[in-house]
Amino acid sequence: MGRQPKQGLDYFPFDVGLLSDPKLRRPRQKYGYLAQVIYIALLCILYRDKGYYIPYGGEQREDVIWQVGDMLNGRYSTSSETIANVIDELAACGLFSGDLFRRDIITSTRAQKAYYTATVDRKYVDVNFDIWLLSETDMKKLSSKSVILQSFISRPINTENRPINEDDRTKSTQSREQKSREKQSTEKHSIAENSRERAEALAADLERLIGIEIDDNFRLDIARLIQAGMQEAVIMEASRQTGNKHPRKPAAYLRTILQGYERDGVLTAADLEATAPKSDKADPAERNMNRPMYPGGPTVAEWEAREAELRRQAKARRLGSAYTDRSGDI
């Protein structure tokens, strides 16, 4: 029995303009270095396996996200949810075909041109022209010797004559599924955007209250925690502990506390109350409310006033969201 023809590539052209593509600007502004690294990781998977596309539906989607996460594993690893959000953003900004992405396919004209050029000397290449983006003219400009071009020119015209009703039913089902996916994507994007905005505001408060600088990666981590359900009160409590301890590296100390809260499932004010030591529940009258949290910083009274204001704002947001949800059901 003959050997299975090779489908993927052993290497791909990393041209000097790959990371300076204007389409990468928006993802970089939102996700920093992660946008570039995840983009490269996807290209590696694309060229290695299928050669010019990645199946991205159902279990295959989870597998792709896992593969990317495995490539990022280490000190600066990130969550599966963040990876999925970055991939959505890369497709939304045009680095991958939007039409095919909605059909659960990751590919692009750039990737297919690279694949076409790399396989010119192959005697057999299996291509699905339903997801092929290059025209006959595009391919001839690259090379007229490719077996892909010959297969494209001689491909059979689909003359299948299905009953009209069946065709209509199929199109209707596909349309409903597409609208459902688009709605889910919009809702997911809205939630992520709201979490990022809340994280930005909270990061600014933390920088002022405990005198630290919160970098872009930490801001993304805070947004992820908020999106996972962690309340501002919990993050403020972690910052209060950081201010009390005066560690040499306050940002790293704060991050460690938040990671511990996430690991232990401490996400709400009620969780904090249930896990707080008795020493942390002392009568406020017994404490020096005019003592600064750190040299040159706000006093305990100012800190707790700001924390109470954040709790009030969070409650107002929750009530407003609940009212909006009820109104939408009327």
Automatic annotation (TrEMBL):
InterPro entries: Lin1244/Lin1753-like_N (IPR025400). This is DUF4373 domain-containing protein. Residues 159-196, 274-299 are annotated as: Disordered. It comes from the Bacteria. Residues 11-109 form the Lin1244/Lin1753-like N-terminal domain. Residues 163-196, 278-289 have a biased composition (Basic and acidic residues).
